[in-house]
Every structure is written in structure tokens, then in C-alpha cells.
Amino acid sequence: MRTRSGPVLLIAAILILSGCRPAAIQSQVTATLEPAGASQPDMVEELDPTGTPDAKGGEAPLRFTFPTPGNQPVSLWRPPLYEVPWALGPNDHFFFSRPIAADEINWPLADYRYGGIFPDSDIVHTGIDIDAPEGTPILAAAPGKVVWTGYGLYSGADNEGDPYGQAVVIRHDFGYQGRQLYTVYAHMSEVKATLGQRVETGTVIGLVGDTGFTTGPHLHFEVRIETNTFYGSRNPELWLAPPQGWGVLAGRVMDRKGVLMTKQEVVVYAVDGGQTWSVLTYGPTSANPDDYYHENMVLSDLPAGDYTVYITVDCTRYRTKLTLSPGAITYFSFRNQGGF
After folding, report:
1. pLDDT tens string 291-338
2. Model confidence, pTM
3. Is 109 helix (H, G, I), strand (E, B) or coil?
4. Is the dihedral of CA 105, 110, 115, 118 positive or negative?
5. Distance of CA 242 to the CA centre of its chain
6. Helix, strand, coil shares of the chain as percentages rounded to 5?
7. Which of 63, 91, 246, 269 is paired with 32 by a 20 to 30 Å CA distance?
8. CA separation for the pair 70, 128 (Å, rounded)
9. Which of 234, 256, 289 finishes a domain?
10. Looking at the 3D structure of the chain, how many domains does it have?
């Protein structure tokens, strides 16, 4: 949710200042398809705290760029999505289709990913935002029953000042590991679905708008597990089917004591295409990791191939190489073993 004012639980925007203090820090970085995979050799680089920051890591301030500055192309050039449900392994769950059709941008806005932080607060974004013109049809991501329509999703009452604006919630016909699944579609200009309606994948349930706390038309999309509240949210990028031949990168970034690092920049560089992405780890509250991956960062819609991952801590840059597999979640973990 892009916000214009007020304390809201669904806002993301990221800008952090990274202070440099020279220190000799050791790290361990692993890059595998399973969280329990073996370590790969990592590379460590000392950065000059007074010099010019390198474009691949160590900028201060740091900001999301997805994939690089400039206009995003529409998704017609992308491969078609894997058919849902899609899961190569027992712990993957690409169960949902895109809620925006393929002739529009249908991937997350870089600055409004799951777990992002509203500036000068600890308010965490519990979904992803997908940019789309006002009036763009919003599609059901999977079959199910409509269990909420209209204003008041956050407050529980018909309230036009509700941060979600006009919203629809679908309780799906399937679950995950015995738990119910829900999806949320917010900020609609018009709700097309009716309470109690049964919908199929691709059913038009509303139109993109800017109702609620927003700064422009877009779709706020959430995946919830077990309970229909933001406390049950999960990162939608682990649940939306990727384009065919593409995959998803998930990581667990920890300090030397094994505590998850918040708002830590992770830079991902595509060896083949030379493209660079930057993403921040989740904020300190409200973001819920996957039960299996226990991640605190996700970057979806990456073409399969070889990548280098950079993490800079205290002016020391660490990097590891990994191969991202198609149609799957590729996982890495990082643990800073030094001190400040």
C-alpha cells in the first residue's frame, strides 16, 4: 500500500542510511536449493569507508531498484506463467496466478515489497503492491468463495477511511499443510464480486483504484494462511507462479549471533545479462517468514541462470555465486560471524 498519511500497517517504502565503520568481519554464505544445503566458498572485500561507493554494494543511502532505474516494460515480453498449482518440491507452493493480466505490469513494485518499512517507523508492509492504471481488471488468483467485499477490512466496520479502501477477500478451495488460505485485493475503485460468490481463477472481482491510504492507483495483494488477518500474512512472492523458465530467490540474512538482520540491503547481480537488483530484508515486526525457508528477503521473477549475491556489513562486502533454478525457490543463507 502506498500511503499518503497516518499510521498504517500496510505501507512499504524503503530508505536507510548505512554507516560505515571499518572492521574485519568474517561471514558464511550458502547458496543452495534447500535451506540445509552445504556452504559454498564466499568472497570478502574490504570497502574504503571514505571512498566512492561501488554500484554493486555499499551505497549510502540505499534504495530499492527493480531491476534497474527507468521505465518497466509491460509483461507481454515475459514467458507465460507456470500453470497453478505448481510445486517442484514438497515445500514449494506456487498456488496462485497473477491478479493482474499478462498484458499489464503484474509483478511487485520494487519499493513496496512484503516486509518493507514505512520511513521513520517500524510499520511493515504485509503484502505486495502491483502498479496498474485505474480501472484495470483485478482477477481472482485461484478458485474460492468471496468472504469480504467493500470498505472496513482493517477496522472490521464499513468505514471509507479504512486503509485498505475497497477490498475483496477470497477464502480458497484448498489449503496448505491443513491450513486455510486467503487472498486479499485492496484499493479497488469498484468491487465487482459479491459476498458469498464463488469465483474461479481469472474471475474479475474488481477494478484497480486508489481508495484507502494510497498515493496512486495500484493493487495491494496479500496471501494469508490459517487466519484472515494481517497477522497470518506470508510473502506473496513465494506463492505466485513465476514465468516459465524463471524462478524465485529467498534468503535468510543473520548477524553473527544468528539474529535476523532487518532492513539489510541484498544486491543480486545476473552474470549473464548484467542486470542488478537490490532488495532489503524484512522489517522488525509483522512480516512472517515461510514455515520451511524461514526467510527474511525474497526476490521473484528472476530468469534462471547464474547470479552473484552481495551483502555489505560495516564496510565489508561479502559475495557468493549461485545458480537460480527454473520454476523453483533457490535459497541462500548469510551469517555475519564478526563483531563491530
Report:
1. 999 999 999 999 999 999 999 998 889 999 999 999 999 999 999 864
2. 0.79
3. coil
4. negative
5. 13
6. 5, 40, 55
7. 63
8. 20
9. 234
10. 2
